[in-house]
Amino acid sequence: MASNINLKLKQKQYESTVVEFINEKKGYFLVVSDDQNFISLLRNTVAKHLAIATDALSVVTNTDYIIKSIRDVSMRKKNVLVFMERMLEGRDTGILVRQVKNAYSDVKIIILTGETERQRLVLLHEIGADNFISKPISVNTLIEKIAFTIKPQGKLGQLIDTARAMVQQGSHESALKVCRKILELKPNSAAGLLVMGDAYQALGKMDRARECFEEASRNADLYLEPLKKLADLNKLIGDSEAQLGYLERLDRLSPLNVERKVDMGEIHVEMGNQEKAEELFELAVTQATREAMAYIGDISERIATIYSERDPERAERFLRKALDAKGDMLDRGDLGTFNRLGIALRKQGKWRDATIEYQKALRIAPDDENLYYNMSMAFAEGKEFRDARSNMLKAMAINPDLPRRDKTIAFNMGLVFMRAGGRDYAERCLQVALELDPDFDLARQALERLGQSS
């Protein structure tokens, strides 16, 4: 019973923090997302759950306008909290996070994501993301995430914020006093030790600063900030070898940071380690190329989508560009592109070319029933019914419930089996089509023809 009361009190505290941010501190939510479910959840949370006017929230779906939108809101003396999709319009928003933080360091950013690799999240945090939301999310958890992003919750967090502000204002001795209180409340607090190290460094006490940063690092194995502070401190005092050691530790924790590899390579050049420098520079260029090519591929696919219904030939050209841009980086995430390319080819009557593309995709995902289904349809369009039947059977072997996914899929499967001599399969698929839609006249007519041929 007591724990339930405590939870409710904490939730009320989180709600008060968010309301105070909007009403008293001129807070503003800028949502960079095309996820209508999340946008609706946030709007309802703001308007109904927290009773805040919805004019404190706006949505941007085009990443080209995000910097302008932040500038416009900031000019109205608003404190901006940005909710940003990790992927938007097929584009990784990591570069955008860096741009926002470089232009507006005070803006808070919450990244919206589904499942993603840990290394990518580590990089996003390193370049400026303040928090992460894994979708879907409940109203209460959403409010809690917002509260922790805009203001530390509890006495400890507030003391850390106070100490940081003192360091920024040049009140270094006062900051050290507050840091000692922090460490009394929570011995070995990594955040408290970091601020203490900043204060000592500003006072020129480099050894004491180093001790604080190293202690912070020992107490937070995956916390990048202490290692970054140590690398910067050793650069400041001219100890390149120690700086390199900390950069290498950072690289192991966050290996996707291209700029850090260049920094490491530069130190190796200065130390005369040309071979190691060259290796790091090559890795940096390879990673940067991967990111650039992935972006080119995403743009090409967007253009192909525009052409998909109007001009299959041009759609084909841009879909090929999308796949070519990925080079040897193709994975299961590209299966949709292969399927769309196959459809674009089939619309042009190039069914044989479509089967070739599906075969390439099967090398990436040999257990994907959709590829076998589409391959079967392509062979059927070329009147190669034996191959059509063989591939449709492979699709059903992988997923026996494939016909139940959609009435049109079930109907198409039924037609393929009718023409390829698979009467039992044809009957089963057509019956499924009618189960899914009892008014599906084409499926009923096909079943009647099947009965007349018996």
TrEMBL record:
TPR repeat residue intervals: 335-368, 369-402, 407-440
SUPFAM superfamilies registered for this protein in UniProt: CheY-like, TPR-like
Pfam families, A to Z: Response_reg (PF00072), TPR_19 (PF14559), TPR_2 (PF07719)
Keyword terms: Repeat, TPR repeat
Keyword flag Repeat: yes
Signal peptide: none
Residue ranges constituting the Response regulatory domain according to the UniProt record: 28-150
Top-level taxonomic group: Bacteria
Record InterPro entries: CheY-like_superfamily (IPR011006), Sig_transdc_resp-reg_receiver (IPR001789), TPR-like_helical_dom_sf (IPR011990), TPR_2 (IPR013105), TPR_rpt (IPR019734)
Matching PROSITE patterns: RESPONSE_REGULATORY, TPR
Isomerase keyword on record: no
Entry protein name: Tetratricopeptide repeat protein
Organism: Nitratidesulfovibrio liaohensis
